[in-house]
Design a protein that fits this description.
By secondary structure, this protein is of the alpha+beta class. The chain folds into two domains: 1-102, no CATH class; 115-219, no CATH class. Helices cover 36% and strands 16% of the residues. The protein contains nine helices and ten strands. The chain has helices at residues 15-20, 34-46, 66-71, 87-102, 133-143, 154-158, 185-188, 194-200, 209-218, and strands at 4-6, 12-14, 55-57, 63-65, 116-118, 120-123, 127-130, 167-170, 181-183, 189-192. The strands form five sheets. Strands 1-2 form a two-stranded antiparallel ribbon. A two-stranded antiparallel ribbon has the order 3-4. A two-stranded antiparallel sheet has the order 5-9. A hairpin with a 3-residue loop joins strand 6 (120-123) and strand 7 (127-130). The longest helix is centred in the middle third of the chain and has 16 residues, at 87-102.
Length: 219
Amino acid sequence: MANSHQCMHGNEAPELLLSQLSASQAGSARHKCAVCAYSLGYSAGAQAQQPWSAEENCQHAKSAPTAVLASLPDSQAGPGLQRHKCCVCAYREGFEAAAVWADIPHGDDVSSVDTFYEGAVKTVTVNAYERNHVARQRCIEHHGDKCSVCGFHFELRYGPVGKGLIHVHHLRPLAEIGQAYKVDPVKDLRPVCPNCHAMLHRREPPYTIDELSAMLRTG
């Protein structure tokens, strides 16, 4: 796993995800290992193990199996990257990152190519587009977390609280696809700030990055 953080228990989770997890000191997962929670969630998502009989909700409106949270090893060690992070959120992030793969027939081995399936329609109570977390992470790793339109950088503007905060814009709109396709995170995705992301979608089809950048230059 590229740019991953390994915990003392031998499990891994993406550094970017861990840095963005909300803090939590509540619930049965208090002082538990968020990296292990992500890893267990990923395994469950890959095996399509939802629904579970008993679950616990966190203050961030996410849920995870009570039994899994209770079984997590304690962790008060490691960098701030994982310390005191919400294990319920970590589990759900892992589950959702893997679930998209479980429902899609793969023609290629993803370990040998840098392409990811994006836009898979997942039936919940309504149809929802699943956005691949790994593809998002790979996009930011390559392009950075500065807006591709206006150049705004949240961490430079707001300090540490803004680290890693950025939207990812799909150059090929998901709503026009309606089925699984291969996305190249470097070619097909771009980091954009929320304002520019909203502006890109003020038109159908959306404005291009270059078109919106030109609007900023000309006013």
